């Protein structure tokens, strides 16, 4: 249960090796979370990482197999009880050039970045609705706020995910369960290794800090860094003729 | 679905709320309990999440509101939903008083049992559970059982005592309490004869209470937590006894019970209305106003329940609500109490009403809070930065000292902390698991603390 001061007891991380996801989990544990489930491909049977003094469970999870997602949520709830925070943090970036050359790979990436989140998100939502409490943290991206020609396959999947998360949040309104949409800019980390950072980039730790602050305050939307909210309020309005000339 | 919170107005969760009117109706509800379980609720005065049940069923028991008294013995048989306010309004004019009243009259008998509440007379009269003759509860199987404090009594023969003492202080998790029988005390008047003293610091407060508390039936100390340095822990002691008839002015109705006009707190207050500036000003004024006096004659309401004079005072803390932190440490562990008061004073923690009380003997309730020693209770706005860490630090010190925090007031501690503070938790779990093997009785508090 989330307590009066915003600390939680349990966390489920789908995409249990995600840098951002683990950074969030570490902070939740530091703030009092005691039971953690890390779900990732081929995770079961491995040695759980040490995260503070929390009890950590490993569970198999394949983002590309939506038919298994409901069961993963149930397994996690059996292991740790009510799920206070669920973080689907799986995803692939990929380059637009590579997707242009390989449409099948592009479709597979979208299936994970969007489709996987739909099945995982709906499965988690069903559980949270039954519980009458809990927060689904959806890691969207500014790439989906206005899709750019430089990465429109990835961006369009994030656009879909962002819309899905908003709709799901509205659907859960009044149930006690909540959805928090997180929109980071460019995140300097493993996923973006070798790329030159865009302006107003952040680190996985900074994203995690913003998520924690958002969970405490009960925010519906979190931008990282916060000033991207205002930047995108403007860029959303730019004419197409200008937008398509964006260098990246 | 209805969103419910405790008195601190933090962490709301939705539940299906129902208001049964009889034990039979409750039994039927329990037999058809939903997967998320059943929690009992009274007047919602627990500060945290004890009477909430996210996604499940919450039984508002205030419909069990019938009671009777045997005036030859003072034994009261009351439905779980009867409030102490209603009892006092009817009993005081007839010359009877409840054996124990907490700082508010607006609690139900069921809640008083489930939290094993204490009052200003704990040092001589112990807590509510000590005055019970029997309890009736609907257990997980849907049967109605009457249990007594001793092992020989009860309608189930031998093991009555265990279920009784698991229920007293058991936070409603052994079953839905439907009725209680307890002995009231005779009074000559509805007034209290009060002595007021001021102390200059914490040491003098503790010394005075230890030396002279036993001369009074009712005692409490209000601490000015914002006083620092040499004045740290300065207090106002108010101590008294039921006044005798000949102590009242001539012509006064000796047993009149008029709680007085009730002010209404504004429906909304900004977060941060209670801040170091406003609370320091209040504390200064309160300390200055509380002039030493002896033999003051006060009514029951202003003496026992000053906050009941303001309806909805909990809203003054703003939309974020507040947490109440109440702990007890055994005698001999005054150093822990001093350290915590010093830290609160140094941090400038804003607590509107900080109360210190000397506890006497506890009850055999397995999860009952009071132990012989000192208890300190404070209210803190929930939005304060660093509050979680500060209170976790206090938890550790209190557990280390062999003390505990009060479950009826808790809204933020951890399962491990409670396990460290309540040595009889496993014994309580065994009794509970036997009477409710499937975990029908659940609350948000139970989930949070893995009870």
Cα distance spanning the termini of chain A: 43 Å
Low-confidence stretches of chain A: none
User: Whole-number radius of gyration of chain A?
Assistant: 17 Å
Number of helices of chain B: 13
The structural class of chain B is: alpha+beta
Q: Widest sheet of chain A: strand order? A: 3-2-1-4-5-6-7
User: What CATH first level of chain A would be assigned?
Assistant: Alpha Beta
Provide the number of structural domains of chain A.
1
- The name CATH uses for the topology of the largest domain in chain B is Vanillyl-alcohol Oxidase, Chain A, domain 3
Description of the molecule:
The complex is a heterodimer of chains A (248) and B (451). With 248 residues, chain A is of the alpha/beta class. Chain A has a single domain (10-243), classed as 3-Layer(aba) Sandwich (Rossmann fold), CATH 3.40.50. Helices cover 43% and strands 16% of the residues of chain A. In chain A, α1 (19-30) crosses α6, α2 packs across α4 (103-131) and α4 packs parallel to α5. The radius of gyration of chain A is 17 Å and the shape is globular. The relative contact order of chain A is 0.13. The longest helix of chain B has 14 residues, at 276-289. Chain B folds into two domains: 65-187, Uridine Diphospho-n-acetylenolpyruvylglucosamine Reductase, domain 3 (2-Layer Sandwich); 191-415, 3-Layer(aba) Sandwich (Vanillyl-alcohol Oxidase, Chain A, domain 3). Chain B has an eight-stranded antiparallel sheet with strand order 16-12-14-13-19-20-18-21. A five-stranded antiparallel sheet of chain B has the order 5-6-10-8-9. In chain B, strands 1-2-4-3 form a four-stranded mixed sheet, with no helix packed on it. The two termini of chain B are 25 Å apart. Chain B is 26% helix and 24% strand. Chain B contains 13 helices and 21 strands. Chain B has 451 residues and is α+β, with helices and mostly antiparallel strands. The A-B interface holds A 1-7, 9, 31-32, 34, 81-82, 129-133, 174-176 and B 1, 3, 8, 10-15, 35-36, 48-49, 54-56, 321, 323, 382, 387-388, 391-392, 411-416, 444, 447-448. Chain A: It comes from Streptosporangium sandarakinum. Chain A: Belongs to the short-chain dehydrogenases/reductases (SDR) family. Chain A: Keywords: Oxidoreductase. Chain A: Its EC number is 1.1.1.333. Chain A: This is Decaprenylphospho-beta-D-erythro-pentofuranosid-2-ulose 2-reductase.
């Amino acid at each position: 249960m989330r307590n009066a001061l915003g600390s939680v007891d349990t966390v489920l991380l789908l995409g249990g090796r995600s840098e951002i996801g683990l950074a969030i989990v570490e902070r939740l544990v530091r703030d009092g979370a005691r039971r953690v489930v890390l779900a990732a491909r081929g995770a079961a049977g491995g040695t759980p990482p040490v995260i503070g003094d929390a009890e950590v469970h490993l569970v198999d999870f394949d983002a590309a197999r939506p038919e298994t997602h409901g069961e993963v949520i149930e397994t996690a709830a059996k292991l740790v009880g009510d799920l206070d925070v669920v973080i689907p943090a799986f995803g692939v970036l990929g380059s637009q050039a590579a997707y242009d050359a390989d449409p099948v790979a592009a479709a597979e990436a979208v299936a994970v970045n969007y489709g996987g989140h739909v099945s995982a998100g709906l499965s988690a939502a069903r559980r949270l609705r039954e519980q009458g409490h809990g927060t689904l943290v959806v890691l969207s991206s500014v790439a989906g706020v206005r899709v750019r020609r430089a990465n429109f396959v990835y961006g369009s999947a994030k656009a879909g995910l962002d819309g899905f998360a908003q709709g799901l949040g509205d659907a859960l309104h009044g149930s006690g369960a909540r959805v928090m949409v997180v929109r980071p800019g460019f995140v300097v980390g493993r996923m973006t290794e070798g790329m030159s950072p865009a302006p107003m980039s952040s680190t996985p730790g900074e994203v995690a800090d913003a998520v924690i602050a958002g969970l405490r305050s009960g925010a519906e939307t979190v931008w990282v860094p916060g000033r991207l909210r205002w930047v995108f309020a403007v860029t959303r309005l730019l004419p197409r003729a200008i937008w398509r000339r964006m260098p990246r | 679905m209805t969103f419910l919170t405790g008195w601190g107005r933090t962490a709301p969760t939705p539940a299906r709320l129902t208001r049964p009117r009889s034990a039979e109706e409750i039994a039927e509800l329990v037999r058809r309990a939903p997967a998320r379980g059943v929690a009992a609720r009274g007047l919602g005065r627990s500060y945290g999440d004890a009477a909430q049940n996210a996604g499940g069923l919450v039984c508002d028991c205030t419909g069990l509101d019938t009671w009777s008294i045997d005036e030859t013995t003072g034994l009261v048989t009351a439905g779980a939903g009867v409030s102490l306010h209603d009892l006092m309004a009817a009993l005081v004019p007839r010359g009877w008083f409840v054996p124990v009243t907490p700082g508010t009259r607006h609690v139900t008998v069921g809640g008083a049992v489930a939290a094993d509440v204490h009052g200003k007379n704990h040092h001589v009269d112990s807590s509510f559970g000590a005055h019970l003759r029997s309890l009736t509860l609907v257990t997980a199987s849907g049967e109605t059982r009457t249990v007594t404090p001793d092992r020989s009594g009860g309608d189930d023969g031998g093991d009555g005592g265990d279920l009784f003492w698991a229920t007293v202080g058991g936070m409603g998790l052994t079953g839905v309490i439907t009725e209680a029988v307890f002995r009231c005390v005779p009074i000559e008047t509805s007034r209290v004869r009060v002595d007021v003293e001021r102390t200059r610091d914490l040491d003098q407060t503790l010394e005075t209470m230890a030396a002279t508390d036993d001369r009074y039936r009712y005692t409490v100390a209000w601490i000015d937590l914002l006083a620092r340095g040499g004045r740290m822990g300065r207090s106002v002691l108010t101590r008294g006894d039921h006044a005798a008839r000949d102590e009242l002015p001539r012509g006064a109705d000796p047993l009149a019970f008029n709680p007085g006009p009730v002010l209404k707190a504004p429906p909304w207050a900004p977060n941060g209305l209670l801040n170091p500036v406003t609370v320091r000003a209040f504390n200064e004024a309160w300390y200055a106003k509380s002039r030493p006096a002896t033999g003051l004659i006060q009514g029951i309401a202003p003496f026992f329940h000053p906050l009941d004079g303001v309806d909805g005072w909990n809203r003054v803390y703003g939309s974020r609500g507040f947490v109440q932190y109440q702990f007890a440490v055994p005698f001999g562990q005054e150093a822990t109490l001093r350290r915590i008061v010093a830290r609160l004073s140094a941090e400038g923690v804003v607590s509107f009403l900080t109360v210190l009380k000397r506890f006497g003997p506890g009850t055999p309730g397995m999860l009952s809070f009071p132990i012989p020693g000192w208890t300190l209770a404070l209210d803190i706005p929930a939005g304060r930065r660093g509050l979680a860490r500060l209170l976790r630090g206090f938890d550790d010190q209190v557990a280390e000292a062999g003390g505990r925090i009060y479950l009826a007031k808790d809204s933020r501690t951890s399962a491990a902390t409670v396990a460290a503070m309540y040595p009889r938790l496993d014994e309580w779990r065994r009794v509970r698991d036997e009477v409710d093997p499937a975990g029908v009785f659940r609350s948000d508090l139970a989930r949070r603390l893995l009870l």
